[in-house]
């Protein structure tokens, strides 16, 4: 699964336990570890999720979305294959994250990221490629829209706009997951995501409502 994010509003759902210590979710696909999350609530159109603090290995690519995903993927794949200061082979995880500035044109700067496995979250080896770097994200609440097919240059804007009313504005950046090179990145449906704010209530399924309120709203 690949995630597409909008920049200033960093999307990342928080995973409660991490990865290998829990029963592996079905959306992990073939990978041994993946980024899980706490489901706050869901509706027919979206889910409100909470993801935990996390470390990722990343690279920036200026191109179209589809071309940037491919270039970024192979840079990061070299990193986990040993192009790092320890020469360590690092297991592939899911999802792959893509962040983009929605305010830019068709060709823009994308940041592609691989989630680091639990064993490397604390002190990952530094990359040997100058264009690859390590970054860390805080825990963040997120609105997620899942859909069939692939996330592409043609449809990513449509899925992001569908979540805008929940966000309450037009962000300068956004988040969305899509699947690329599925045999390597793991299974799961593509998802489009926008970061939310805990305590901000928008709709019956909301990051601003308690779990009980969300449940009662969904059953009314």
Automatic annotation (TrEMBL):
InterPro entries found in the cross-reference section: Reg_factor_effector_dom_sf, SOUL_heme-bd
Lyase in keyword set = no
Q: What is a GO molecular function of this protein?
A: heme binding
Q: Which residues form the signal peptide?
A: 1-20
**Keyword terms, alphabetized:** Signal
Q: Which family does the record assign? A: Belongs to the HEBP family.
- According to UniProt, the name of this protein is Uncharacterized protein
């Amino acid at each position: 699964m690949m995630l597409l994010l909008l920049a200033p509003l960093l999307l990342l759902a928080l995973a409660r336990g991490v990865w290998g210590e829990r029963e592996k979710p079905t959306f992990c696909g073939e990978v041994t570890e993946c980024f899980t999350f706490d489901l706050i609530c869901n509706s027919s159109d979206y889910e409100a999720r909470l993801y935990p603090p996390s470390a990722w290995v990343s690279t920036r690519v200026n191109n179209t979305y589809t071309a940037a995903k491919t270039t970024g993927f192979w840079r990061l794949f070299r990193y986990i294959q040993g192009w790092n200061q320890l020469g360590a082979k690092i297991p592939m995880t899911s999802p792959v994250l893509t962040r983009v500035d929605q305010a830019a044109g068709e060709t823009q700067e994308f940041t592609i990221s691989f989630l680091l496995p639990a064993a490397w979250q604390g002190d990952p080896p530094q990359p040997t490629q100058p264009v690859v770097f390590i970054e860390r994200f805080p825990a963040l609440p997120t609105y997620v829209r899942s859909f069939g097919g692939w996330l592409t240059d043609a449809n990513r804007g449509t899925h992001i706009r569908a979540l805008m009313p929940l966000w309450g504005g037009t962000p300068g950046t956004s988040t969305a997951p899509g699947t690329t090179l599925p045999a390597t990145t793991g299974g799961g449906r593509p998802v489009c995501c926008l970061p939310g704010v805990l305590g901000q209530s928008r709709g019956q399924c909301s990051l601003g409502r308690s779990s009980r309120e969300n449940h009662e709203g969904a059953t009314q």
